[in-house]
Amino acid sequence: MTVKATQQAPILSGFASVQPATDITIRALQPGVLTSLSVLPGESVRAGETIGRLGGPQIVAALATAQGASQAANAALVAERGKFADHLSTRAAVTQAEAAATAAQANLAALRAAFRLQSPVAGHVQSLAVGTGASLQAGQAVAVVQPAAGAWVRAVLYGSQAAALPPGLAARFIPANGHPAMPVTLRGMADHQADGGEVLAFAGTGLQPGEAGIVRLSLAPRRVLLVPSAALVLDDGRWWVMLRDANGDHGVQVVPGATEGTETPILSGLEAGDQVIVQDAALLYHRGIAAQYQPPD
User: Fold this and answer.
1) What is the pLDDT of residue 143?
2) Which domain holds residue 73?
3) Residue 141: inside a domain
4) Would the pTM of this model clear 0.85, i.e. be above it?
5) 56: left (phi over 0), alpha (psi -120 to 50) or beta
6) Which one, 69, 87, 232, 275, has least CB within 10 Å?
7) Are 171 and 184 in contact (CB under 8 A)?
8) In which region does residue 138 sit, left (phi positive, over 0), alpha (psi from -120 to 50) or beta (all else)?
9) Residues whose CB falls within 8 Å of the CB of residue 213, separated by 6 or more in sequence, listed in order
10) Residue that terminates a domain, selected from 220, 252, 276
């Protein structure tokens, strides 16, 4: 079958539970220097209020890189649209350039939001862990806020994207008991687990403390390559597909994403238009395995 390119909005989901109004720890989302801190213990804060800002060489470098990537993606989009108007490009190429520009802009917006340390909920500042001028690592505690009232959703998500989600992102909390899904809003990072999980705080209305389920949210669309899941072969902890080209049939290592239905997105290793073998792919991949073994005496 031919490898096809499509636009896909990645979905992050993870176990979640509704928590009573307990203390929330505000943490840095990016490494940097705490250039300002506008609260003191005992002061009141509003939900989403900025209590401090990050700066320093790491922040400047990260911002410059993200801005450069966004400008380059926008320039590529303009050029691709111009070529399409002159009948020198295809609609698929324009769509791909639009997706790249959107993703670069979303990454820049998320980075800018991460420079602001915001309170996930309305409440009172219980304590401060650091002061102005402190050098912070990603996930390091800055302040503890005691919520004024209301329950919140504690969700654990994994992956590099989970660590850079901007506050204000819309999501859904889906209770495990079959109750209707409820809209929730990301307020910020609550904690960082030793296994790499990011503990995120979501706010919403009508939440019942003790209720469990999952939180699911969609990210900005990205261009992915789809292949039938049956074409994937697992060998020694790595994924392969059998590629058919001018050199015949041979294995190519790939990096797959999360399977959706009967198809799996391929993050790297293939190009649109490649021909992959689906039927009996595993048998074809292992066709020479017998030569690696000596028959018993």
Assistant:
1) 92
2) 61-112
3) no
4) no
5) left
6) 87
7) yes
8) beta
9) 16, 17, 173, 174, 175, 176, 177
10) 220
DSSP conformation class of 247: T
DSSP 180: P
Backbone angles phi, psi at 291, to 5 degrees: -70, -15
Nearby residues of 266 by Cβ (< 8 Å), 6 or more positions away: 3, 224, 225, 226, 227, 241, 254, 255, 256, 257
Same-domain status, 215 and 202: yes
What is the rounded distance in angstroms from the CA atom of residue 51 to the CA atom of residue 117? 6
CATH of the domain at 213: 2.40.30.170
What's the token pair of residue 91? 């609609």
Whole-angstrom distance, CA of residue 28 vs CA of residue 51: 11
User: What pLDDT was estimated at residue 71?
Assistant: 92
Unique residue bearing structure tokens 């993606």: 73
- Residues 107, 159 within the same domain: no
Amino acid type, 104: A
Indicate the Cα dihedral angle 186, 192, 194, 197, nearest 10°. 10
User: Residue 15 domain-assigned?
Assistant: yes
Taking residues 279-291, report their average pLDDT: 78
238, part of any domain: yes
Q: Which of 226, 259, 254 is nearest to 239 (CA)?
A: 254
What SS3 class is residue 11? Answer: strand
Q: How far is Cα 203 from Cα 201, in angstroms, rounded to an integer?
A: 7
Provide the residue type at 234 as one letter: L
Selection from 23, 28, 30 nearest residue 65 by Cα = 30
216 with 233, same domain? no
Q: Residue 192: in which H helix or E strand, if any?
A: strand 182-192
Phi, psi for residue 15 in degrees, rounded to 5: -60, 140
> Cα torsion for 201, 207, 212, 217, to the nearest 10°?
-50
**Residue partners of 158: CB distance under 8 A and separation at least 6:** 14, 196, 197, 198
Please work out, in degrees rounded to the nearest 5, the angle formed at the alpha carbon of residue 167 by the alpha carbons of 165 and 168: 115
Structural domain total, the chain: 3
